[in-house]
Design goal:
Length: 409
């Protein structure tokens, strides 16, 4: 544990020192932590020795996913969803399940996994991560509707994929261990806690007896999140659904609390993300990468270049998006942090196919991080008009526009 903490602290300092460079180039902080975990893990240097059975793996995965779902939910209150639902609705209502199904078909027919295990891996790899499309989302020359689409979709699909992961994981554990009533109670209780706790906390602060100071305002949402986490653990409600519901509830009823917590919350979530990526990388060994065989690598490639693009193409038929916009949405379906944590949950679940599923998930995520984090700037430049044409043509066009604006004698 001490070695893991030392490695994380050193890498975090390095990431901070390189953060300005990373924003201007294809250098990826996520890729840095993933690669460092791989090199420091048992498969290479053996500095960070960790296994799936270690308590830190399950605990870190749980806390990291809770933090990320809470902050994701806080980005998309009901007002945001109602105001920007047309295009994100296609990506979430059609694109997400279609990606899940196509990925499952690949796992079943290419790898030979059973249907339940194939659907589980499809659910794990269905969510997208906005981190690797940062250059695209942050480029003002990219159409606003496209940036909004990617932001809303990636903020919501982690939570939407969660029930599928839980149900398929329960089914994969075997029919003897599956109790749909208990599972439904767990999900329902999580949803109730996630809505009731933040709503009551916000309403209390709005009364004349309570008022948070400016200095403590960012801690309000943190306290709400911790209370939701504690109640979920105590009552065995689903922590992840509770986190996502709590974030949406804060965004819907507490705009002030949302704005005060936004930057602080993103930093907390980022810390957990990077720690989970380090652990995930340490669990990936050269032996694991080699054991998947050519069919495993082919599955990973097709999961990136076929499953998401086909699903997006079908989902956006008749949507009015240009081919360039559809191509950008189709490509930027990177398998990011949610898939990392869902993969860790599958690995530590004890199901018969846990090791094989984790191997396939791992190689797909590794490919995704390397490919998507190194192409976001390139794809973003598609939408930069000044880069799409030669310099002389841009100068000629500006001269033409200036002549047109001059009054005729």
């Amino acid at each position: 544990m001490g070695t893991l903490l030392l490695a994380f602290a050193g890498l975090l300092l390095l990431a901070v020192l390189l953060s300005s460079l990373a924003h201007r180039t294809i250098l990826s902080t996520a890729a840095l932590f993933l690669l460092a975990g791989f090199v420091l893990g048992d498969g290479v240097l053996g500095v960070v020795s960790i296994t799936a059975e270690d308590e830190v793996v399950g605990t870190l995965a749980e806390l990291a996913l809770f933090a990320v779902l809470f902050t994701d939910g806080m980005r998309v209150g009901w007002a945001d969803l109602r105001g920007a639902w047309r295009l994100p609705g296609r990506a979430l209502g059609w694109g997400l399940p279609l990606t899940l199904v196509i990925t499952a078909l690949l796992a079943h027919y290419l790898i030979g996994l059973g249907w339940i295990e194939s659907l589980l891996i499809g659910a794990v790899l269905a969510p997208t991560d906005p981190v690797f499309a940062a250059a695209l989302v942050g480029n003002e020359k990219v159409p606003p509707r496209l940036r909004q689409l990617l932001n809303v979709e990636s903020g919501v699909n982690d939570g939407l994929a969660l029930p599928f992961v839980m149900v398929f994981l329960a089914l994969a554990a075997g029919s003897r261990n599956l109790h749909l009533g208990e599972l439904g109670l767990e999900l329902g209780l999580g949803l109730l806690i996630g809505v009731a706790v933040p709503w009551l906390a916000i309403k209390l602060e709005q009364t004349r007896w309570f008022s948070a100071s400016t200095a403590y305002e960012p801690l309000n949402a943190l306290a709400i999140g911790l209370l939701v986490l504690a109640l979920g653990k105590a009552t065995h409600g689903n922590l992840f659904l509770a986190a996502f519901a709590a974030g949406i509830t804060v965004a819907t009823f507490g705009q002030r609390q949302r704005e005060a917590f936004e930057h602080f919350g993103e930093l907390i979530a980022e810390l957990f993300k990077l720690a989970a990526l380090l652990v995930f990388g340490a669990l990936i060994t050269p032996a694991l990468l080699g054991s998947v065989g050519w069919t495993g690598w082919l599955f990973a490639v097709l999961a990136l270049v076929a499953a998401r693009p086909i699903a997006i193409w079908i989902s956006f038929l008749g949507s009015g998006l240009s081919m360039r916009e559809q191509a950008a949405v189709a490509w930027f379906g990177p398998k990011g942090f949610a898939s990392v944590v869902y993969g860790l949950i599958v690995l530590s679940s004890g199901i018969a196919a846990a090791s094989q599923e984790f191997q396939l998930i791992a190689v797909t995520i590794v490919l995704s991080i390397l490919l998507h984090s190194s192409t976001d700037i390139v794809v973003a430049r598609w939408f930069d008009d000044e880069r799409d044409v030669p310099a002389w043509y841009g100068a000629a066009r500006r001269l033409r526009d200036r002549v047109r604006q001059e009054p005729t004698p």
